[in-house]
Design goal:
The chain is 30% helix and 17% strand. By secondary structure, it is α/β, with parallel strands linked by helices. It has one domain: Adenylosuccinate Synthetase, subunit A, domain 1 (Adenylosuccinate Synthetase, Chain A, domain 1, 3-Layer(aba) Sandwich), CATH 3.40.440.10.
Length: 339
């Protein structure tokens, strides 16, 4: 069975949560593992009209038979972790989740430093979740690890071993990334970036798999990219234009209004190259063409929507395999069998 990685291709908020939730239900992976930075990224998914948002646990929690893992490269905030266990108890998350014992811990002092630092919170516009200072402590070799926190002991595991064992047993593994390509510490719009790399290569490393173990990389783009906080945004539109188009949104973690832009084909092409994308997932096509709302058959898409998809494939150079046409999990066109 294959393994695949899902990452954001823009500046986060691409709709990865909805794509991952669909894949979790449709493909029924045995393991769903989360890489990425930590609790500074929120993923949302709508289930029967109800919104669920997670910052620590894998978004694929909705697949109730999957083992849920948090890789060694992910920062863990115990408070957020236990809050989400409680909030998702209907999905039996507590019985299925494992945290790598090597995860670094976000402490209260990290959050205080993040929120009080003029450079981080003021100029860069961080979420205040403590991730940057916690990663700095890890680099300085003074961070606490999950194995040092007694309350986490029942959930500790070796994520890399679990995943590699699963792959050797021909089990399906889905790996989730967080944030987006434009926020990569190395390849993003530095210094307006997050505190580590966010590309597919880094996400694979976070959960302990080598580059040859990932069969597919799905990069998620949205029809109108958004960005929270400061930093370059070449195709940004005015707030008035965003309101006219009906694209007014607020960050899952920060509550700040998202900046909105036009689709950047050149940036998208660079993103898929660095991520090694084999497929694109395009979200919020219904925002680009309202007549596309809720359609689940590609042939039934209106001409405007189809032409946009075809332009992305031509100019970016990767097939658009998944298309979200609305907020619910069922609002998706799956073309993986035809490309």
């Amino acid at each position: 069975m294959p393994s695949y990685i899902v990452v954001g291709g823009q500046w986060g908020d691409e709709g990865k949560g909805a794509v991952i939730a669909y894949l979790a239900l449709k493909d029924k992976p045995d393991i769903i593992a989360r890489g990425g930075v930590g609790t500074n990224a929120g993923h949302s998914v709508f289930i029967n009209g109800r919104k669920y948002a997670v910052r620590q646990l894998p978004t694929g929690f909705i697949q109730t038979k999957a083992r849920l893992l948090v890789g060694a490269g992910v920062l863990v905030d115990p408070g957020v972790f236990f809050h989400e266990l409680k909030a998702l108890e209907d999905f039996n998350v507590g019985e299925r989740v494992g945290i790598d014992y090597r995860c670094a811990i976000i402490e209260e002092r990290h959050k205080q430093l993040d929120r009080s630092n003029d450079h981080l919170h003021g100029k860069i516009g961080t979420t205040g979740s403590g991730c940057g200072p916690a990663n700095a402590d890890r680099v300085m070799r003074r961070a606490k690890l999950a194995k040092d926190i007694a309350e986490l002991e029942p959930y500790l595991t070796d994520v890399a071993e679990e995943i590699n064992n699963a792959l050797e047993d021909d089990k399906l593994v889905l790996v989730e990334g967080t944030q987006g390509f434009g926020l990569s510490l190395y390849y993003g719009t530095y210094p307006y970036v997050t505190s580590k790399d966010t590309t597919a290569s880094a996400i694979a490393s976070d959960v302990g798999i080598g580059p040859t173990r990932a069969d597919d990389v799905i990069v998620v783009f949205r029809s109108f990219p958004t960005r929270v906080g400061a930093g370059p945004f070449p195709t940004e539109m005015s707030q008035e234009e965003a309101e006219r188009l009906g694209v007014v949104e607020y960050g899952t973690v920060t509550g700040r209004r998202r900046r909105v832009g036009w689709f950047d084909f050149e940036f998208a092409r660079y993103s898929v190259r660095i991520n090694g994308a084999t497929m694109i997932a395009l979200t919020m096509l219904d925002k680009y063409d309202k007549e596309a709302f809720g359609i689940t058959d590609y042939d039934r898409l209106p001409r405007k929507a189809k032409e946009f998809v075809e332009e992305i494939e031509e100019r970016v150079g990767v097939p658009v395999a998944l298309i979200k046409t609305g907020p619910e999990i069922k609002h998706i066109i799956d073309r993986r069998d035809t490309i």
